[in-house]
Amino acid sequence: MPLALFAFGNSAMKYAMPIMIIHTIYMGVVGIYIAASGSGKQQTIGYALGSVFKQPMNYVIVPGILLNQWGIILPENLMKWIDMISKTAIPIIMLALGMQLANVVASKIDWASVGFASFVKLIVAPLLAYLICLAFPISPLLRNIIVIMTAMPSAANTTIYAIQYNAEPDYVSACTFISTILSFISLTFLLNLLV
Question: N or C: the chain end with fewer CB closer than 10 Å?
Fold first, then answer.
């Protein structure tokens, strides 16, 4: 969202915010299901579904949407508390990613696979997003925001899921790190094309 705001201004927020919310819901359901399915545990459908239902985030989505739609304002003290806690999320995720990267043994990582995953995430995915957007009658602004958000590096919360479910956390951490470093180049190029 900050990148969309930087590139396209305040008008981008009406598109970027819903896209981010949909992505967060998707990661909270499908992402956790995939991570739990790939863990070293029983790897049953029941275990993976149970993992999705154990995530507190998945229980606040619908009430949050309803409160917003009905215009219900929560007490100011409660909102201050929620705001303070929400500001800790990104630092905690970055701390967990850093701790995981500190334990990664470079010689044990399949760097060809990490490079391929980063290529798909940073180059192939935004290109596909652009081509798919061309098939629909959407505004150029919405198309550009979709492409930019698709071109972002691997999300750090994937590392949290990989650690939690022991689903190749070293590999996932390496993918997140490398795609983030390479995104400085790919996003700069892409922004120059789209803006």
Answer: C
Q: How far is the C-alpha of 187 from the C-alpha of 125, rounded, in Å?
A: 13
Dist. CA 94–CA 15, nearest whole Å: 26
pLDDT tens per residue, range 41-87: 556 778 888 888 888 877 888 888 888 889 888 889 988 988 888 88
On the CB side of 182, CA atoms within 13 Å amount to 19
- Torsion sign, CA atoms 28, 29, 32, 34: negative
Token representation of residue 59: 């229980």
61 closest CA partner among 105, 94, 23: 23
**The model's pTM:** 0.79
Give the phi and the psi of residue 138 in degrees, each rounded to 5.
-115, 160
Q: What Cα–Cα distance (Å) separates residue 184 from each residue in 30, 122, 162, 179, 189?
A: 28, 10, 24, 9, 9
3-state secondary structure of 182: helix
Cα–Cα dist 162/51, whole Å: 13
CA 108 to chain centre: 26
DSSP line for 102-155: HT--GGGS-HHHHHHHHHIIIIIHHHHHHHHHHTS---HHHHHHHHHHHTSPPP
- Section 115-132 average pLDDT: 95
